[in-house]
Design brief:
Blueprint lengths: L10 H47 L9 H10 L1 H35 L1 H16 L2 H12 L3 H25 L3 H9 L4 H38 L5 H10 L3 H36 L2
Helix pairs in contact: 2-10, 3-4, 3-6, 3-8, 3-9, 3-10, 5-6, 5-8, 6-8, 8-9, 8-10, 9-10
């Protein structure tokens, strides 16, 4: 009954839902537009300020080329940049994939074995404290000047965040949920696949997002030392010739490759969340 003793028609609820639907959609669209527009707007402001500074200040290209000249070089010599981008991207992806598998595997061992946790965890922290770049020449000596040394060095740099994040995710599972699963006679594999792993997904992907950037850094460091191809090699080659324009163009392409790899990780996270949401509605 509506106020005053009149029968309710239900129109208020339906009208509210109709109004709330478009409004919610509009708010979501504004949020997405803002999340994309703010970083792009800031980047545009920085590029315009950079261009004005170089033009007004008459800064020579050998010191700092303008964004327009860098973009022009990328457009004209995209074939050379692409040729060097391919090995860097593939080696970074390989190092990241191995680091992810190794990190998750070590996290599982640390989670399920107290002895392994006490033995491994302090040593993992110790290795993380070692200045990584100081070990790069040793990887060249051990594994040669090929891609194996660069991939191994990328793995060495990138696996630690995955281990720590994944172990934290496994440890964050509600203890009462684990007790309930065991009370229902679920075995350890069922508990892991249905409870621990889904609960740890945000932690795992957080570590992976850090690891993918570190893997690229590891490959670039290796290319600085021995490679005959790759964006790192191109940067060193251009720097030796004092050709700052080529170096900056290679750095821009390297950022694009990094964004693509990072985007793939974010896409995988979205797919995994949707999959487990569908499995456990």
């Amino acid at each position: 009954m509506a106020p005053g003793g009149l029968p309710s028609t239900g129109m208020g609820t339906e009208t509210g839902a109709i109004i709330a639907g478009p409004r919610a959609t509009k708010d979501t669209g504004l949020t997405r537009l803002r999340s994309a527009g703010l970083p792009l707007g800031l980047a545009a402001i920085v590029l315009v300020a950079w261009q004005i500074t170089v033009t007004v200040g008459h800064i020579p290209p050998v010191i700092l080329p303008s964004p327009i000249s860098i973009g022009k070089y990328i457009y004209e010599r995209y074939d050379i940049l692409l040729m060097h981008a391919v090995p860097t991207t593939l080696e970074s992806a390989a190092g990241f994939a191995i680091a992810t598998l190794l990190g998750i595997g070590l996290a599982i061992i640390i989670t399920y074995s107290e002895v392994a946790r006490e033995a491994l965890y302090p040593n993992l922290v110790f290795f993380q404290l070692i200045p990584k770049i100081a070990l790069a020449p040793l990887f060249i000596i051990w594994l040669g000047i090929g891609s194996q040394s660069r991939i191994a060095f990328a793995v060495f740099i990138a696996f630690f965040p995955v281990v720590i994040s994944t172990a934290a995710g496994f440890a964050s599972v509600d203890k009462s949920m684990l007790r309930l699963c065991r009370a229902l006679t679920a075995n350890e594999w069922q508990i892991f696949s249905s409870v621990r792993f889904p609960a740890a997904l945000p932690y795992i992907f957080s570590g992976m997002k850090i690891a993918v950037t570190l893997a690229i850094i590891g490959v670039i460091i290796g290319e600085f030392i021995t490679a005959q191809a790759g964006l790192g090699y191109l940067i060193i080659f251009a720097t030796a010739r004092a050709d700052t324009e080529i170096s900056m163009a290679a750095i821009v392409v390297l950022c694009i490759c990094g964004l693509l790899l990072y985007g793939l990780v974010a896409l995988a996270e979205s797919v995994a969340n949707r999959f487990y949401s569908a499995e456990n509605p």
